[in-house]
Amino acid sequence: MRFLLGLLVLAVAPAVAQPALIPMPVALDVGEGTFEVTGETPILVAPDDSEAARIGAMLADLIGTTDESTPSVGYADLTALEVDLGGAAIRLVTDAGRSDLEAEGYELAVSPEGTVITAATPAGLFYGVQTFRQLLPARVEYTATLPASISAPAVTITDAPRFEWRGMMLDVARHFFPVEDVERVIDLMAMYKLNRLHLHLSDDQGWRIEIPGRPALTEIGSLTQVGGGPGGFYTVEDYEHIVRYAADRFITVVPEIDLPGHTNAALASIPELNCDGVAREPYTGTRVGFSTVCVGREETYTFVDDVVRELAAMTPGDEIHLGGDEVHELPAEDYQRFVERAQAIVTSHGKRFVGWDEVALANLEAGAIVQVWRPQSRGTAASVARAVGAGATVVLSPADRIYLDIKYDSTTVLGLTWAGINSVRDAYEWDPSGLVEGVPDDAIRGVEAPLWTETIGTVRDIEFMAFPRLAGVAEIGWSPRGRDWEEYRLRLAAHGPRWTALGISFFRAPEISWPLGGVE
Questions:
Q1: Known catalytic residue: 365?
Q2: Half-sphere CA count of 37, side-chain side, radius 13 A
Q3: Is residue 125 over pLDDT 60?
Q4: What tens digit of pLDDT does each residue of 386-419 get?
Q5: Is 55 in contact with 129 (CB distance < 8 Å)?
Q6: Phi and psi, residue 234, nearest 5°
Q7: Rounded Cα distance, 268 and 111, in Å
Q8: How far apart are CA 52 and CA 123, in angstroms?
Q9: Is pLDDT of 65 > 90?
Q10: According to DSSP H, which parts of 136-200 are helical?
Q11: What are phi and psi of 458, to 5 degrees?
């Protein structure tokens, strides 16, 4: 009888709950027990590891909301087999010899005795901390004092990203967003291990970046936006601040100046960019394809060189994006010649040329990056495959999957429908491999979710259109190939309380069973 009762207990014992992590790690084992975290729990780093100490301070600030509840960050010899912790601790270990972890990979071991995060680089350590953050209860995200203990389940995780480029694009040209809004976007990206922020800095409706030596671009070109309004621009100091803020969270800023089309703001600012030498009127509408710089004038290439030179000096990242999309007013031969000259200017300033997929019609150099945005039914595959054959790589941004400005459904107030409807499931249930015919997996640099802002006017609008879909894009970029929607939607639902605690204005997609009530 006791034997039968034992079998019965085993039969009905619940399975060990898997943590609702996004992105899903490469390898995850759930152990027994929990690790209790308090203000008395030290965060330890090696004496000479300033980056680990900085990352540890970010973790301490997350855990604590008062002096008493904030863990201290201290130094210890983490190479010793035994460290006298005086109790449990969180250890952040950078081990450059761990080449098996790759540049952005990490190991995370949580037990009742403590937590150890190990990585070969600071980036890997930061991503390990983001995973540990998701193991903690959602209330840890509140900035107000919450006098309650927090704990993390015992786990062992080994993890590394599938793709090196995991990004989001923010259009600050159609509507301008101040520095603090961009910081908010960066913070939310970092939580999901995204590492590229593509800033669309110019378009017909506005020029958003100060270019020393070209004051008219901001004196005139920055004063408008879609529907009217004051517009705005980033000073050199603003832009450099954004770049530093992003870099502190292991995000690289990729600036875009759209050329030769989408240029009315520049044409209104600098008459010499027009073939007739007459400045254009400012534009606040939403049409595309009507504007282009005069590609037959040398003044145009002097302008491109001036802009790229200044951007390159402000941008530590490797890439500068020069747009190239939706140019309806140029013959194909003129367009191709312009792209090739613009590409040469970018490389002459030590940067890698990036462009939307139309640029693949030109002769691209090895190392160029083609950002694929048009649905493949529009016949873009052949030119992209040709560019890849010449040594280019691709970043995938399929509009009918991960354009964040496309409506969730027919009732969504914000957003557009030209590419259809992009539900939360649509944005998640696809794979980069094989998306573009003729492009092998080793030519795919990664994925990026663009957010165009014709209908987006506030940071709350940005949050609403990005979440929940951006979390799915992050998983596509990080986790191994293979999507299980039914399993993912359960993990996604568990992030609702965390987003509530963070004050994110997210879309409560009806296909997700969001928890009711508050954070706990």
A1: no
A2: 26
A3: yes
A4: 999 999 999 999 999 999 999 999 999 999 999 9
A5: yes
A6: -95, 125
A7: 62
A8: 10
A9: no
A10: 179-191
A11: -135, 165
Amino acid at 17: A
Measured distance CA(420)–CA(237) in Å, rounded: 39
pLDDT in tens, 131-152: 999 999 999 998 886 667 799 9
User: Among candidates 432, 437, 422, 436, which has minimal Cα distance to 468?
Assistant: 422
Beta-carbon contacts of residue 2 (< 8 Å; ≥ 6 apart): none
Residue 305, both tokens: 């060189």
Annotate 61-72 with b (16+ C-beta within 10 A) or e (fewer). Answer: ebbbbeeebbbe
> What would the pLDDT profile of 230-278 be if each residue is shown by its tens digit?
999 999 999 999 999 999 999 999 999 999 999 999 999 999 999 999 9
The share of the chain scoring above pLDDT 90, in percent, equals 88
CB proximity list for 7: less than 8 A, separation 6 or greater: none
Catalytic residue selected from 113, 272, 326, 429: 326
**8 A C-beta contact, residue 322 and residue 293:** no
User: Tens digits of per-residue pLDDT, 298-330?
Assistant: 999 999 999 999 999 999 999 999 999 999 999
* Residue 200 DSSP one-character state: E
CA–CA separation, 184 and 198 (whole Å): 15
Q: How many residues does the chain have?
A: 520
Mean pLDDT of 65-91: 77
Backbone angles phi, psi at 249, to 5 degrees: -110, 20
Cis peptide bond N-terminal to 468, omega within 30: yes
Reply yes or no on whether the pLDDT at 87 is more than 70.
no
- DSSP codes of every residue in 262-308: S-HHHHHH-GGGSTTS-PPPP--S---S--B--TT-HHHHHHHHHHH
The per-residue pLDDT for range 338-369, each reduced to its tens digit, is: 999 999 999 999 999 999 999 999 999 999 99
Report the run of H or E that residue 451 belongs to, with start and end. Answer: strand 444-451
* CA 155 – CA 388 distance, rounded (Å): 41
- List, as one string, the DSSP characters of 79-121: TSS----SS-EEEEEE-TT-GGGTTT-EEEEEETTEEEEEESS
- Residue 219 scores a pLDDT above 90: yes
Q: Give whole-number Cα distances, 342 to 76, 364, 404, in Å.
A: 52, 11, 29
Q: What is the largest CA-CA distance in the chain?
A: 97
Q: Are 38 and 66 in contact (CB under 8 A)?
A: no
Segments in 315-442 forming alpha helices (H):
332-348, 381-389, 399-402, 424-428
